[in-house]
Structures are given as structure tokens and as C-alpha cells.
Specification:
The chain has one domain. It is 91% helix and 0% strand. It contains seven helices and no strands. α2 crosses α6 and α4 runs antiparallel to α5. The radius of gyration is 20 Å and the shape is globular. It starts with a helix and ends with a helix. The model has no long low-confidence stretch (mean pLDDT 84).
Length: 213
């Protein structure tokens, strides 16, 4: 039984490593685009005017104060919002990956994901300071993004792979098979992102409360 489990784990590991090795350039490109988005998000918050900066600062401070004063986090609302946001980018990536003209949109969505991450992290650190800001980011953003970011990159690369496969062999049967394979990947990525939403709601939220209360 143990050997069988070990074999399955090794098989999954080999499949994942093989996929990455076969698409290493695509992953490098996607990671670079993500990093560019993060940098742009950081630059944008640093260039924000006084009114925008103050609004962000007030929102973060009010949120922390409410928690410290005994206000409970609305977990149901947090879960719904998290699932909506996480599945939205998956659906947009899936739709974009299905069309040839959607490839630029795939790159754009990855850059937007990076921009939002850079913007959020920079805004938090700018408001709370380096030490408290890092604590806030680690407690509220780290765990779920360890799941979300790789899964989004996998789907984006799968979209590029679909495009290349269709361009290489335009037979209808091949196109149907590749689209089905891509859709199955998107479905499982969606499930993974729902799991990430559960982590954000029921684990990250509790970590945040333990640190800041």
C-alpha cells in the first residue's frame, strides 16, 4: 500500500516536472510578465496622489481597528468574494485561451494579476510600515497565493500550448481533443482556486486575527 502511494506520488511528480521542462520558455515568459505587473503595481501606488493614498490608508487602518475592537470578519461574504475573484480570472483565461486572438489577453490578465499583487502589497507596507506591513501581507495573502499564482500560470501556459497545438495540426479531430484537454485543465484549476479561497477564508483570516488582535 505504501509502495503504491509512493509510486503515485512519484508519477504525479514526474508528470509535473515533465510538463514544466517541456514548456520552460513559456513559464519564464509568464513569470516575467507577472513580475512586470508587480513592479508596475508598486510604481503606481508610489505615484498615487495624496487623496488616493489617504483613502487606501484609511481603509486598511479601519479594517484593522474593527478587528481589534471585536468586530468579527464576515467569513461568508469573504468566501463569496474570494471565490468570485479567483474564478473570474480562471474563466477569463479559459475563454481567452480558446481563441487565437485571445492570446494577448492571456498575457494582459497575467500582468493584471501581478499589478494587483504589487499594488496591494505596496499599499499595505506604505500604510503600516515595513515590519507590520510584512506581517499583514504574510498573514492575509501568502498561503492562498502559493496556490493561486502557480495554478494561474499553469492555465496561462496551457492556453499557449493549446494555441501552438492547433496551429501545428488544424484537423478538426485534433482541435476538439486539445480544447477538451484544455477545458479539463481549466476545470481542475478552478477547483484548486476554490480550495485557495477556503484557505484564505478559514486559515489566513484566523492567522490574521491571531497576529493583530
Amino acid at each position: 500500500m505504501i509502495n503504491q502511494r509512493s509510486y503515485k506520488k512519484r508519477l504525479i511528480s514526474d508528470v509535473v516536472i515533465g510538463h514544466i521542462n517541456n514548456n520552460i520558455m513559456e513559464y519564464i515568459i509568464m513569470i516575467i510578465i507577472l513580475l512586470i505587473g508587480i513592479i508596475l503595481g508598486t510604481i503606481y501606488i508610489n505615484k498615487a496622489n495624496v487623496i488616493q493614498t489617504q483613502e487606501i490608508s484609511n481603509y486598511i487602518n479601519d479594517f484593522i481597528n474593527d478587528i481589534q475592537n471585536g468586530s468579527n470578519i464576515d467569513l461568508n461574504n469573504l468566501l463569496r468574494t474570494s471565490i468570485y475573484n479567483n474564478l473570474l480570472i480562471i474563466i477569463l483565461l479559459w475563454i481567452s485561451g480558446l481563441t487565437v486572438i485571445g492570446m494577448p489577453i492571456v498575457y494582459l490578465l497575467i500582468s493584471i494579476k501581478g499589478f494587483c499583487m504589487g499594488y496591494s502589497i505596496s499599499a499595505i507596507i506604505a500604510t503600516l510600515g515595513l515590519k507590520e506591513g510584512i506581517k499583514f501581507v504574510l498573514s492575509t495573502m501568502l498561503l492562498q497565493n502559493i496556490i493561486i499564482v502557480p495554478s494561474v500560470l499553469i492555465l496561462a501556459v496551457s492556453g499557449i500550448k493549446l494555441y501552438k497545438a492547433i496551429m501545428k495540426d488544424r484537423r478538426r479531430e485534433n482541435i476538439k481533443i486539445e480544447i477538451l484537454r484544455y477545458t479539463i485543465i481549466a476545470f481542475f484549476i478552478g477547483i484548486i482556486n476554490i480550495i485557495a479561497s477556503l484557505v484564505e477564508t478559514y486559515i489566513s483570516a484566523n492567522i490574521f486575527e491571531m497576529i493583530f488582535i
